[in-house]
Amino acid sequence: MIDDAEAVFFDIGGVLVDLASVRKGHRRFVAELAGEHDLDERDVLDTWREVLGNYFSERRGTEFRSAAEGYRRAVDAAVGTEVPESEWRPTFERASNETIRPVDGARETIDRLSGEVYLGVISDIDTREAERILERFEVTDRFDAVTTSETVGRTKPDPAMFAAAIGEAGVSPSRSAMIGDRYHNDMRGGSWAGLHTIAFGGSAANGPESDRNDPEAGVGDADRDGRDPDGVVDYRVTDLRDVPAIVGLDGPE
Question: Which of 60, 77, 99 is the last residue of a domain?
Answer without folding.
Answer: 99
